Amino acid sequence: MYLCKFDLEGKRVATVVDGIHFKNKKEKKVYTDRGYIETSAEDYAYYVGNRGTGANGTGYVRGSDGKPVSAPPYTPTKDEKLARLESEYQQEKAKLEGYFNTALLMDDTETQEELRSEMADLADWYAEEKKAIID
């Protein structure tokens, strides 16, 4: 038998096992008094990932009925979104700068002007996307 503790979203945060962490009803009560819930071996297998990753690829959590349900999809934090945006922006900027340097070496002024315009558009896009994430 397993006793599991869950957070407010139903994520398993701790587990104790009969015969290892407790050996009798008195020791078991210490855990249940701390919010641990008796969990079957089958349900436990879902919580630890032995039954796949659920419908959203994020595993399973304890549902309102006490049974495993697919965890909600992962939602990136604002910092993660900003980091991904910064990375995408820097990669695209580096690519355009490389093209620009080649056009500069080739004395291709028409391509240089097109690339200046693309770099300005990229900077505008980056500013708008960043503002949308921050606001």
Condensed summary:
The chain has 135 residues and is α+β, with helices and mostly antiparallel strands. Helix content is 52%, strand content 15%.
Give me the side-by-side strand order of the main sheet: 2-1-3
Biggest sheet character: 3 strands, antiparallel
Shape: rod-shaped
Instruction: Provide the number of structural domains.
Output: 2
Secondary-structure-based class equals alpha+beta
Features:
135 residues; alpha+beta; 2 domains; three-stranded antiparallel beta sheet; two-stranded antiparallel sheet; 4 helices; 15% strand
Question: What can you tell me about this protein's structure?
Answer:
With 135 residues, the chain is of the alpha+beta class. The protein folds into 2 domains: 2-70, no CATH class; 78-134. It has 4 helices and 5 strands, in the order ββαβαββαα. Helix 3 (78-105) runs antiparallel to helix 4. The protein is rod-shaped.
Secondary structure topology:
Blueprint lengths: L1 E5 L5 E6 L7 H9 L3 E3 L1 H7 L12 E3 L5 E3 L7 H28 L3 H26 L1
Antiparallel strand pairs: 1-2, 1-3, 4-5
Helix pairs in contact: 3-4
